[in-house]
Amino acid sequence: MRLMFALLAAAALAACERPATEPAAPATRQAEFSQPVLRAAAPAPASPRVCVEDGRAALVERLRVDGLWVNDAVAGPMSPRMAGARIAAHDEASLLAGLLRYGPGMAVLVTYAGEDESCAWLLSRDGLVAYGRNGVSVGQVALDVAAVMSALDVEGARAARTPVLRSETQTVPPQPLGALREGELATALAHVAESVTPGPIAAELGRYESLIVVPHQALAGFPMMLLTQGRAEGRPNYLVDRMSIQVAPALSEIGIGPGLHRDLSVELAAMTAEQRRAVLSEALIVGDPRFNDAEYLMPQLEGAALEARNIAATFGASPLLGADATNAAVRGRLRERPRYVHFATHGLADFHNATGNRSFVALADGGRLTLADVRAERMANGAIVVLSACQTGLGASRPGGFVGLPRAFQNAGAQTVVMSLWNVDDAATNHMMQGFARKLAETGRPASSFAAAVRETRARYPDPRLWASFEVFSVAQP
Q1: What is the pLDDT of residues 238-253, one digit of tens each?
Q2: Distance CA 423, CA 445 (A)
Q3: What is the pairing mode between strands 210-214 and 106-113?
Q4: How far apart are CA 205 and CA 122, in angstroms?
Q5: What CA dihedral angle connects 34, 35, 37 and 43, to 10 degrees?
Q6: What is the C-alpha separation between 227 and 229, in angstroms, rounded?
Q7: What topology is assigned to 262-473 in CATH?
Q8: What is the band of 272 on the pLDDT scale with cuts at 50, 70, 90?
Q9: 264 phi and psi, to 5 degrees?
């Protein structure tokens, strides 16, 4: 047993039928699954239609809608850098200026799901590369994402690995993963791809080796490592097989990124191997704290302890394990501003109040690293944070972007947050995290290192439930 996150709530968007008058829309897909979308989405404010015919005009409207909600997405005290970045003033000019910092092999995929239709833009340093739209409503997108999660069927195995309230009399016995419903999964993934990468965009993706996805509303509940483009021999072609994939917390991050964070990925990549090792040897690595939470029963996590030891050995760092991983010790190390932070422990995500203080990373002797704790610290500018705990990524998706633990770390100064959506297998997670640490030490590139680790893990553990459970939450160089 290891890394377990409890869901306090999850909500799916209600299904919306596509209008019969939309000639370009494919046939409405019927709801066949009831699995809830992992991250709840709030309704967008009334606004003019976004997915108009002209791609540039549509993008300007997408930016305007984001600006209406950006303060809601930030949701909490900001670091001085973020407070001074004028994120609400983000516009087309700042977006295009932000794109110029990326190399020619990098693209940004921006999505939007409206009441009656969806659209997407592919951007690069050259500007608008492609624009596509279709008649897929936000409600249908929610159903398609729910269908993916239903086909993956991780709930039974995940539920047995989550913290349990001490007040509850029943616990969930361990459950093995059931057989993967490959046909259902392939169909559901194709439907999501139809919404995310309409024809004009799909035709251009092959030109790029790195991708940043800006999800909107229901798409925030989709595991981006499962993005596909067509099939080969009857199986999905996963984009991660040929490119790195990152998830932007909000569209505004593309434009304000240069003024918000140091690009640690560029700095690490430019270092010698010896210099990188010196930086990574100062990492804060927390594994399997000695749990004694007053509210939740949390079993010890031998797999998490092994993960922490292995990563510490790769970096030449000293991990905080067991009774040593207290709140005071962790926050003390955070104040030393390490540029790599790794938590392999229990945690909990609160959907109902993602901006409150009920989401936390569990520490020793009943300690918790809460949202308030994270906000009170100042991370090393551009730090890499790994939340290798089940459902650490599950904050809420709002029209202006993500809120929750990952965004709190970014607000405090982190540039890249690698976060898990579920955890059902210690061996696969350990293999992936070791691969990531090894590649990062070799190259200094977080996104490309993680994509390589995903591919290595997939080669050994082909079941997507074992390799597709993490997101790279960042707008850094790959």
Answers
A1: 999 999 999 988 888 8
A2: 24
A3: parallel
A4: 8
A5: 20
A6: 7
A7: Rossmann fold (3.40.50)
A8: very high
A9: -60, -30
